[in-house]
Design brief:
mainly alpha; Growth Hormone, Chain: A
Amino acid sequence: MTEHTSSQTRWSLILLSLAIGVSVTGYVGKAPPAIPGMRAELSLSLITAGWVVSIFSAMGSITGMMTGILADRIGRVKMILLALATISFGSILGAYAHSAEIILLSRLLEGAGYIGTMAILPALIARLSSDRHRGLAVSLWSSVTPLGMAIAMVAAPAVIEPIGWRGLWWVTAGFTIFFLIIGIISYRGIDAKTPKNKQPYWANIKKTISRPGPWLLAICFLTYTFQWMAIMVWLPTFVIEERGSGLGLAATLAAAGVIINIFGNLFGAWLVHRGAVRWLMVTIGTTIMGTTSLFIFPDLLPDLARFGLVLVFSFFGGLQPTALLASVPLHSPSEAQLGATNGVLYQGSQIGQLLGPPVVALVVTYTGTWEQAGWVLFLGTMINLALAQWIRILEKPVIK
């Protein structure tokens, strides 16, 4: 596509966009620490409690592209502000919930607000960037998810202890309402300067999905989040059940695995800015993730070495989202479909986040051991290696 040419990079608004993303991704990490108290108060079964976590991703897994198309049509800033209002309302509704049905509805609304921001903010960041800085600015976005999750995982217990899980819901709503107000003030006039896509919805869908690039990026993101979320979600359980460790140590190890991913994202952003080949970054990242996953679960190495592999897995895995996000402007049919293409990418991400933990749980339950879990994740690497070569072929004529 022909990218929009901007004379300067508006870093202040880009940093605001990144901060909004961090506040929104905190909604991903707030649920797991709240589940025990929520189950006790609302009498939730284990299955229902699982849905409280996963229904959040289910929304994005089916609405990502349509959200992007709607944003391209009505304005990206309008979509982001509407999404912030929706996620805030969902959190407030959840704070008042006294039944499983209401808490699930609230999480569904939170999920709608989540995809409405996460799928659109990268397109807005691209719009706010000059040609020189666009790759760096967009790839910085990849650090938002692990940063927001890590903050929520660390802070949630400290909030829940004095004011309960309902208080945590009010705190997260407060942050997103704050950014909603700041966004209304700071983003003023941006939509008016951005061309709107007035084509029919079906025409935009057809134009976006008729090219292989958006699909390849989405599937790569799917397999990445499938692998990464499976490790991060089940690491505490594995450490407690298989190694006999306490909850405090298990939570600390999981948080460390999430936090190291941020540094991998930032390293990837630096590589993109330095002109690194994106398909090669995907190849390196997925190869290291797949290889290390084979040795994390089997009892072949000392525990310290296995945790070291978790850190390696998460750090080098962080190369993939930066490379994929930086590739969106190149593979979008035109700037008018930039939001739709980002939507497809995040739809893939949400599907991977939704499927990864339960699929691994199913394998562990069926086999009766954790030792085969790594092979399930390795299959994702095999898929990504093939897709990276396809991306290389598509990008070869335009790589300078």
